[in-house]
Write a structure and sequence with these properties.
This protein has 17 helices and 9 strands.
């Protein structure tokens, strides 16, 4: 039997976003973790009304962020890890990037973007020259990248005590290169990005105790001299912003910067050939349509072709469960 449930779930999805944002701003999850369990207790802890907290907490229970027994609310395991302030994996700060006006306005113009075939927000969208949105990204998204960074570092392989030269292209928060520096005590990492973004990477390198082995190249990945040679070039969450010819330009620069036998490690949202599975990965293509002029979620076959045409000998596909991202390891002969 036909049902309008999907329609209403989708048309009202903004309510879920704003409910979660309100809970994070009121720190409801953190207050529950500290023992406040009833609506009056949570209201007192957050400085809100008991009626408002009760309605919000019930809605969060319906969504599955918390549970309710009698009049008491408890955290789910996921909420305890990702929504409790003080947790190393706390994601509350991600609102600062994911809900920036530029990102939201890009989706507000989605019909125009579909007609155009690229973002209708501006000519270039989020990849415009020295866009400040990437400072927000670097500061807000670090906790989300902890697990992918650890998994990507494992793909470096080999003797962990050997000297290793790593270039982190469009480094952002810098955590991918920093994780390799932590795992490989003789690794020297060079981070390339806009100067204001690299300030965040430098802070993170200092916090993780690897700043002495963390150098900087400020500027555009397309215009800056990458230096080298390097054993590993990291291309993390970067290529999806561009069309195929532009990706090939970056891949060619990576090849030129690598030693013989070196490799490029690409982290991306790589859907299956059908482009609709797995859903969390494949749906990223819509984000690129809304926010960039030419970006996409490319399949492995497309990445394999990009790196082959740039001169790499071969590429391998590596899933990175339980994350929704995948990696491509491309080898220079």
């Amino acid at each position: 039997m036909a049902s309008p449930a999907l329609f209403f779930d989708t048309i009202n999805a903004f309510q879920r976003t704003e409910a979660l944002r309100a809970a994070v701003e009121l720190e409801l999850f953190t207050h529950i973790s500290k023992g406040a369990g009833t609506a009056p207790e949570l209201a007192a802890a957050s400085g809100a009304s008991a009626r408002g907290v009760r309605i919000l907490a019930d809605y969060l229970t319906i969504l599955g962020f918390i549970t309710k027994t009698g009049e008491r609310y408890e955290l789910t395991p996921d909420s305890a890890v990702f929504l409790t302030r003080g947790s190393p994996a706390y994601l509350g700060g991600a609102f600062e990037f994911l809900l920036t006006p530029q990102i939201r306005d890009s989706f507000g113009k989605l019909t125009a973007a579909v007609r155009k075939g690229g973002t209708a927000f501006s000519d270039e969208g989020t990849v415009s020259h020295d866009n400040p949105v990437w400072v927000a990204f670097a500061r807000a998204m670090g906790p989300m990248m902890m697990m992918p960074a650890q998994l990507l570092s494992e793909l470096v392989g080999g003797d962990r005590d050997r000297p290793l030269r790593v270039l982190d292209v469009a480094a952002g928060h810098g955590l991918f290169g920093i994780q390799i520096a932590k795992d490989y005590p003789n690794a020297h990492v060079t981070a390339l990005d806009w100067a204001n973004v690299l300030a965040v990477a430098s802070e993170n390198a200092k916090r993780e105790g690897v700043s002495a082995r963390h150098a900087l190249i400020p500027g555009s990945a397309f215009e800056a001299d990458w230096g080298g040679p390097y054993d590993v070039v990291l291309l993390t969450n970067f290529l999806h912003h561009f069309d195929v010819p532009t990706c090939e330009r970056i891949a060619a620069k990576a090849l030129a910067a690598l030693v013989p036998g070196g490799r490029a490690l690409t982290l991306e949202f790589i859907p299956n050939p059908d482009r609709v599975s797995p859903p969390p990965t494949a749906s990223f293509a819509l984000t690129m349509l809304a926010s960039t002029a030419h970006g996409d979620a490319y399949t492995f076959a497309e990445y394999e072709g990009i790196f082959a045409r740039a001169g790499f000998a071969r590429s391998e596909f590596r899933p990175l469960p339980p994350t929704s991202q995948q990696a491509v390891v491309s080898y220079k002969s």
